[in-house]
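Step 1: inspect the first sequence and its tokens.
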Amino acid sequence: MKKIISVLLSATLLFSAIAVGFSVSAADDDLKIAIASDLHYNIPRETLEGDINDEIYWYANRRAAMEDESGFIIDEMLRQVAEDDSCEYLLISGDLVDNGRSIRQEHIDVAAKLKKFEAESGKDVFIIPGNHDFGQGENDVKIADILEIYADFGYDKAIETLEGTGSYTADLGSKYRLIAFDSNDPARSTGDGVTKDEVNWVCDQADKAYADGRYPILMMHHNLLDHMPVQSIFSKDFIIGNHLSVADKFANHGIKVVFSGHEHCSDVSSYTTLKGNTIYDFATTSLTMYPLQYRMMTLTEDKITYEAKTVDSIDLDALTSTVSGYTQEHLDLMKAGLNDYAKGFLKAGVQYRLWLGMTPEKLGIDEDAFYADLVFTAINGLTSILEMPLYGEGSVQELAKEYNIDIPDSDYETGWDLATDLVASHYAGEEAYDFYGDEVAILLRTVALILLDDLSTVGDEIFLKAANDILSHIGIDSIQKDLTKLGTKVFGPVTAGEYFLLAVASPILYEFAYDSDGVNDNNGEFDGYGAEVQAFENVTAKISNIIEKIMLYLSMFVNIISKIFA
């Protein structure tokens, strides 16, 4: 190991000597821009409809998107940006509308809002399409329609375009250049369509920006970097293919800032190349879902600072004159704080979505598989216990005491309340929950009851094989090391049954509860384009992270082998 580290550190010294050093002459003016994403505009319905079992949010949907309110939320965001005199431009990184492939009128409505904003504020809007915006079916809105409808929002200022796509470049202020990159595949509903030639086009445009004395900023719909652990495996349609090699190329061509969307979370991730160049991917949450956020960013030669902005009110008179069916309780809650209302709406929608998704079919479990009965029993027990009250008479806490399981006190009412709070935290960024903390422990100890109630006679070897097969089927077997660590933290020495529980529960826990990249998601700062690249320090930190991961994998391997052959 010492020899390996010596070689890596020697490589660090070599790369630091040849690190890419980009320099653009300083200008007097800095740049402040607003960034929004995934507006998902819907034409509002005349009357609310819905059937979700929730006292207040019965009209929520499985996407947890505030569809009927979307146009009014967009209006408020545009008003806020217009009133910020220091903000010069508005950038929108895709999914301007929700049903854009089939409903052209949604595009026309959003374009009208943006046109009015530009006319009244004097600020320019730059857009890039998302996967909801166009397709290639016979009756779909096509990319040519996008270029026509949104002609005034970036395309009219294009320096270069990429034929057959929505990609273009345009100048922002006196020293920055936007590379608006169409990452979509119109033949696919969600996944990206990025090709090698398109990646090279982005790199060429970055080089041309520097040749013209400008810094390149990239905007695309799909994520460039992981915004949750192993996103490229567990949620691969939301991140471009070969994302790390592409990020490496973009960073080494001098791109430092990327704006993306698609994942509907507020998250900032970074990647450092072996040449010491760091690139930051700013995934901005859907504007019309909790937390109803957009970003403000200020770029100077030395520093780049950013902050999240929230829409917390809308024109309720305009809303109710357009859509009927809101109760006085709805309106009172919205008036008290639209963001809190949106969180309740999201939690109701997410519970519905997770309830629909917690089936063997949705998890990709073959009913003929040897472990199918185990999974059916576990899922039925899991959903039943999540619906029970956590505390009081007839509660999970009361039942758990019969098995000497301690459910700590909290303010949560049910397991679903806790699980959906974890989801909301992921969307909002700056996750408040430690993957190994009390909230996750409460949830795991709660669902652990199914092992004692229903699966107590199953042998360890069946549990272990079933757990590994489940993880492989749902594409997240690479997180075994973290599941083992989590189980040890919550239960002490992990039994085979508890490991099986972790495998079943991991789709909820791992996707939404864990953010350990060390980069502030909503508010922060880092070195600007003109700052000197700290190649040695950057690469040393990168190597340390690689070594830490190697040691974790070795630990995981030894742990699992010891379980199998114990």
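Step 2: inspect the second sequence and its tokens, then contrast the two.
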Amino acid sequence: MSQFIVSARKYRPLRFDDVVGQEHVSKTLKNAIRQNTLAHAFLFCGPRGVGKTTCARILAKVLNCKNVTDDLEPCNQCDSCLSFDRNASLNIIELDAASNNSVEHIRSLNEQVRFQPQEGTYKVFIIDEVHMLSSAAFNAFLKTLEEPPSYAIFILATTEKHKIIPTILSRCQIFDFRRIRVDDIVGQLKYICDSQGIVADDEALHLIATKSDGALRDALSIFDKLASFGGKQITYQDVISNLNILDYDYFFKVVDAMLLGDIAEVLRIFDEIQQKGFEADAFLNGLAEHFRNLLVCHHQAIHHLLELSEQVKATYLRQAKLTEESFLLSALDIANDCDVNYRMAKNKRLHVEMALIKMNFINQVVKSPDLLVEKNNKVVTEKSATSISRESKSVSGPRELSSVEMLTPTNGENNKEISSSSQNQSKRESTNIAEARSDQEDQIVSQIGEGLPFNIKKKQKGPGLNSLSHYVKAVEKKFEETRELQSQVVSLDQVQSIWNEYAESQNSQTVKAVLLKTKLDVVNNSILATVGSMVSKSVILQEVPLIEDLRAKLGLPRLTIRIDIDEANIDTTERPKLLTTKEKYEHMCNENPQLTSFLDRFGLKPDNDV
């Protein structure tokens, strides 16, 4: 059995033109070679699997190729190119900094720089994963990198540019490699499929390209895995089953159920997804991506942002016509909040289900009258507002003027009378038209509702948005009520009675004593409480139920209490001093001299601590 070579190695580009998605790098290097302005040190940085090391190898081959083509590509046939392909070239040296990152390895490299190339013009050093070098190794490499011999070229490659010290960055010509676009990866996969005689669905290739996240090497690794699974055929179902990806159909079904207001169907689909082993956060992120794609479909100028196959894109465009931007934005906001708080949730399934239920009720808050749906949970048709308007006008449209009404009388008084009657008649007609249109809309909505699995409520008649008189009256009424409450006079006797009643009901003797000793007064319908210490003030501030009790019983919801400290009311009476045992003994002797004679007569002595 012959040794299998993975596609990432088998189809590794050998020319600049074969590098996928990095045309800006290829063109710059070719022009530098053509104009003889090639730098002595390069830094290729970018994500993994986008062609950094590949471009470095192609550049090294071009510099030593004996038969460079007219478009500055390596011939891949001369001794230099062939020896490099066999890893036998002495002029092109590759170093893996991840495993050779010490000072000794860099010193060994510096020694090799001193020797001129045995064959060819340049000696090229390719250092991969250069960010893995230690600080001491970077410092040992600085002088050689800044002033190398004329025949030495350094090509550094890294995925983490920020880890390289600035002194190294300043000595290199930096090239930033881009993530490869989905369409470019799909094109490369199709080329490989044609080369190997593999039949692959467009949806499958697009899904592989999307899953690779802009890395062609990752896409080729996934491709090899699926080619081994399906043999000479790669289907969309093979991709989603092997890569553990949710099918687009699930998200389309969820949105259809949300448009119908069918909570049970949404939760059933979510349960089916979890039964297949998918995590709730993966479903949530996929649903958010689905909403994003639908939102993109609403704007034709950005349809290119949909990196999908033509068939899937057409399905998105059809569903996007049946969704409102307000619904999509609200759903995206809910999904984002759910994703942010997902890790902190203890019941993660319930957390996601609550987000789905919220999304389901969006259309009831922002309901579009243009959306019609059938009972089989499939959105099938749209009804524009203009069509409803035409039906309404057909029922009761504007009345045409008769020939008598079009005559203009010559008498001024008749003019006024006819003008006044015409205005009254116009108002009556406008009212009749509005009522007829409202009845017609209710009739249409009721007819639509007969074929739906849920009930559509008729419009609630109330104050229109164009008329604010109802709301102005409500605000004025509220203002009058507040002013009446503020005009009430607060009685000190009432305050004192409520205060004392609350104090007597307290179990804590400390709180009770502080409240009873507080001096109360009423100033501008506000209560002024005077206490004797900061401690007493803190005790009163902690009694929130007291303030609420006063506001409720006095009928003043905005009643305020100010607490002042009056130092004159502070109890300054001298407290009894705590005496030591010795002081107590001396006090007893002074108060009763016979105690001393008693001790002397019997030869008694106090304890040592006395």
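Step 3: confirm your contrast with the notes below.
The CA atoms of residues 30 and 72 lie 6 Å apart. The chain has a mean pLDDT of 78.
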